[in-house]
Amino acid sequence: MPERIGIYPGTFDPITRGHLDIIERGIRLFDTLIVAVASNPGKAPLFDVNERLEIIGGEIKKYKSVRSESFDCLLIDYVKKKKASTILRGLRVMSDFEYEFQMALTNRKLAPGIETVFMMTSESYATVSSRLIKEIARLGGDVSGFVTPAVEKRLREKFRKNPGVAT
Amino acid sequence: MPERIGIYPGTFDPITRGHLDIIERGIRLFDTLIVAVASNPGKAPLFDVNERLEIIGGEIKKYKSVRSESFDCLLIDYVKKKKASTILRGLRVMSDFEYEFQMALTNRKLAPGIETVFMMTSESYATVSSRLIKEIARLGGDVSGFVTPAVEKRLREKFRKNPGVAT
Amino acid sequence: MPERIGIYPGTFDPITRGHLDIIERGIRLFDTLIVAVASNPGKAPLFDVNERLEIIGGEIKKYKSVRSESFDCLLIDYVKKKKASTILRGLRVMSDFEYEFQMALTNRKLAPGIETVFMMTSESYATVSSRLIKEIARLGGDVSGFVTPAVEKRLREKFRKNPGVAT
Amino acid sequence: MPERIGIYPGTFDPITRGHLDIIERGIRLFDTLIVAVASNPGKAPLFDVNERLEIIGGEIKKYKSVRSESFDCLLIDYVKKKKASTILRGLRVMSDFEYEFQMALTNRKLAPGIETVFMMTSESYATVSSRLIKEIARLGGDVSGFVTPAVEKRLREKFRKNPGVAT
Amino acid sequence: MPERIGIYPGTFDPITRGHLDIIERGIRLFDTLIVAVASNPGKAPLFDVNERLEIIGGEIKKYKSVRSESFDCLLIDYVKKKKASTILRGLRVMSDFEYEFQMALTNRKLAPGIETVFMMTSESYATVSSRLIKEIARLGGDVSGFVTPAVEKRLREKFRKNPGVAT
Amino acid sequence: MPERIGIYPGTFDPITRGHLDIIERGIRLFDTLIVAVASNPGKAPLFDVNERLEIIGGEIKKYKSVRSESFDCLLIDYVKKKKASTILRGLRVMSDFEYEFQMALTNRKLAPGIETVFMMTSESYATVSSRLIKEIARLGGDVSGFVTPAVEKRLREKFRKNPGVAT
What we know:
The structure is a homohexamer of 167-residue chains. Chain A has 167 residues and is of the alpha/beta class. Chain A has one domain: Rossmann fold. Helix content of chain A is 41%, strand content 19%. Chain A is built from six helices and five strands; from the N terminus they run βαβαβαβαβαα. Chain A has helices at 17-26, 49-60, 75-81, 94-110, 130-138, 149-161; strands spanning 5-10, 32-38, 66-71, 86-91, 115-120. A five-stranded parallel sheet of chain A has the order 3-2-1-4-5, sandwiched between helices. The first copy, chain A, is globular. The interface between A and D is medium-sized, with 24 and 24 residues.
């Protein structure tokens, strides 16, 4: 059997408890799982790609078969370069479904040999989105239910330095 | 029985017939209902927060138990400050549901003692959104079915002064 | 202020932790909350209406302002007879929304003075439905996460007596 | 690495091109994939469980790592008995999502170690449901786009013998 | 230009104000519009096919280009027999969409030359379904907002004769 | 019978195989079909309105009854000016539905005599959106499955000249 490599792509700005939940669930499916950080230069993320990789690194070091990388090309080109053939995505709520459906079928059209598999995020994290977490953190709210203590600290530092930063 | 205070939060840029429909329906649930205007400095509203309060004031003065205020913090912090424990929201269409669901569960996580209750907007206003109304008004369309005459006049003045204003 | 009476209608065949969650959240809105059991003769429930009332009675006796009754007419006629004007319903998932929307607007058409208010079920109970619980119990599964111990005992007795009963 | 066993459960009454599409896509995820036929005695299927197994057998014999079995207990009990820990399900359309979400989270509650993974059915089969196919076949329509020739023959035989059979 | 014939299929058990709304809107698209009543023997309708045709006849006689017929085969076979090539359907709410999408794409697969066009039902009738109307009428409720006086009279007669009839 | 004129409005930035699919299907409904390009100055399109008209012109010249124009006013005012009374729109996926529902009911409120009719895009194009296509083209991906060769060439030229252009 060839090695099963899974790619878990996202912006991870920053990584949430919901993302980590999917990583833990996804480990069983793959010999190696790569958390692939889209650099997305157009989107003006709160954390730059190196900060995001550093944050993820701290969270995943306990998993032997998981590692993290960034990419700045089409996802399917990155997947091919890694000699992987499976993309992992989490589904939280119904509205995710249609976007994910569109992305998965588009990627299948662009690269028929690459498949997307989905896992359900724990219902405890069903309402956790990076965008919402940043908005709460910016307004001084408690995000400890949504991110790990390390990420919480990073968010606090980011907004202390620059309280007006757009989220 | 302690006083039942309800908070009806929103951007109200501007207040629509759909919002007023929810206020009328919500009155029965609360001894006092506060229309809470999010100042949302990041969003570049068409009407600034004082204009929005002024417009709302004109519409709600006929309701004895309703008043209006602005807030610029996390909604749950504002709710606590008012010693309220219930948030009122209107549901118009299915896509509202998932966003509202996410917000209500997030707020419940941040403040377990605060609840959100929902009422259905009249089907006559199911398609009324502030964003769409502003777009129609900007292009010179008739918005009298969506807002009161006073709000219609405000929209007309706003776009007469500055026809190129972004909506 | 007149007494605020809320009606929480359903089949409750049997009452679940999700239903009890809504009752606890709804208490704050009403001076009196009536759990109204639809006798639904056409639906062939697992528990007859008296059994369902008995089960509910055991669960709600700790709440001073909550009581239970059955009805076998149009819901709005029952609501009027109780001199209530507000119906309480729980929303769990997106598909609930459209059904509830249809029922609420239909009831509003039949009786414009009666309103429906909605609360969100805790995400822990988002997947709990009476139908599914009965199916799991029938196949000998553990339903303790979905119903109280008293209801679990009832389900076990029901299926022990008649393992082939349709669910 | 222990053997990865996947369970693909369903009623398969009868198996469609959409089901076969998911099987082909799922093969890559598992060392062994078991197509698990729910006997569902309550549902009055068109084909009895032995016929369904026989039909599936003919379709999957070309896949070395796929086999078929029936089960008549709770799915999670069957999964445990097979020493598997992953359930495979196909998603076709948005309405599937909510049902599947409910089932997956319920199964996770009943058996936290068992996960469900989802794959998207090819858009060519997005509208294929066993129920609809049976209705078309009963009315003499051409179902060759939805099932294999062998299944088509079976449907024709079934409805020739008993044109009035309920679907 | 050949004659444009549209087929508006349904069970119409009985025809509602929502159906009549679609007929009025659809007239403009076709030289002839045929209201096609599915006899659906399996479904045990409240009104038999002749009663349904008679009721529809009374409602549509004012429209010169509309007539009514029944059919008991696959819809696309009926459409071909009428030398029509367009099916008209109404959309009321979101959940209609997915069912209609599935039917339209299935019919397109079975008969690529036949198209389905959709129109939106007036929001006043968005919550009107034949099933719900029958349930309200059976319980003695006022259905005058949902059906014409003639249909209301028919429903009253039907339930007076046989109050226990299943709906 | 007066001439039946249909208006197919959109941004068409650029026109996709999905749009062309709807045009081909829509031809049967109208004596004349006008592809109406919204100039949308606020949205910063990739192709300016003249480029979009030129691209569409190349694609539709084979259809005798189809022509293309731009408009920069409210859609319903444009429809009235063309003495048309029917708007054609394509539906691809469920999330389209709610937006289209809102637009159609809003336009009906603004101009009761104008109707919107919908057709289903072929499932082959269900995931094709102009936004996604531009993103793929910008990253050097193969968009030949989503647009015609002429449009593909245009996209390549646009991104060769200015690889950093926002999409």
